[in-house]
Amino acid sequence: EEGSAKIPEGAPLAGAPSGKSPGPRFLRAVISTIHGHELPREQWATRCNPYLLLKLGGAEVRSTETFDEVTEARWEDQHFEILAGESRSDEVLEVHLMSHHKFRSDALLGIARMPLRLFLGELQRPRPGSGAKSSERRGSL
């Protein structure tokens, strides 16, 4: 099933800058807490349903102290994208995902494993008019 393969620990994402190249850094984020529920370490990573992630686009996302601020979180192009501020670490970051919606924990944990992509630094905003394309993709999920 596409999108459900587990990413090996420490594996770089395709297209991620290598070495000290300029530009945003792409790191794999790890979800260890969803809606206040701690997950066992073996369940850390990408256990979220794309439909939930769409709904969580406006949810509160809190990080550990690894980076200063999370400014945006959204589902886009088969990734859950988290835009963060300045990072104090180049390691895989741990993210606490908190939602104001009351989802059942088994719905959050059991449906699909999806890759996460963390954006550190500035991210170009989508151009006006790109919303229609987003809606089409959202409808096709």
From TrEMBL:
Residue ranges, annotated region (Disordered): 1-23
Coiled-coil positions: none
Top-level taxon: Eukaryota
Entry protein name: C2 domain-containing protein
Residue ranges of domain C2 in the record: 8-129
Annotated CDD domains: C2 (cd00030)
